[in-house]
Design brief:
Elements: H1 2-100
Length: 115
């Protein structure tokens, strides 16, 4: 009876040792998975930070370009108003010239006699 109990105890000790080894191996596998996951998370965080920085730079550039576009539109509007005023002045001068009968003397208005 004692020998049978000792043999059973040894068998259980071997099973326990096998379970502990399997447990240790599984813990090591899980720790490796955690390490790999942490590396991936770090890489993704780095990529995300880069993307946010790139977005910030693009937003700043977009704001500058929008400001330049607005400035260009203001300049274009001023130019159009100036062209309208100049066209109006030319029309007035041409009417005055036509009314005065000076069609032979274009030089008074900065023109060329060979028009």
């Amino acid at each position: 009876e004692h020998l049978r109990t000792c043999a059973l105890l040894r068998e259980k000790q071997v099973q326990l040792a096998d379970l502990e080894t399997a447990h240790d191996e599984r813990v090591a596998e899980l720790l490796e998975e955690v390490r790999a996951s942490n590396e991936k998370a770090d890489a993704l965080a780095h990529s995300l930070n880069n993307a946010f920085e790139e977005r910030r730079l693009l937003n700043a550039r977009t704001a500058k370009l929008e400001a330049r576009l607005t400035e260009g539109k203001v300049i274009e509007e001023r130019g159009l108003k100036l062209m309208e005023r100049l066209t109006s002045r030319v029309e007035v001068l041409e009417r005055k010239r036509a009314g005065a009968g000076d069609s032979d003397d274009n030089t008074r208005f900065g023109g060329d006699e060979d028009d």
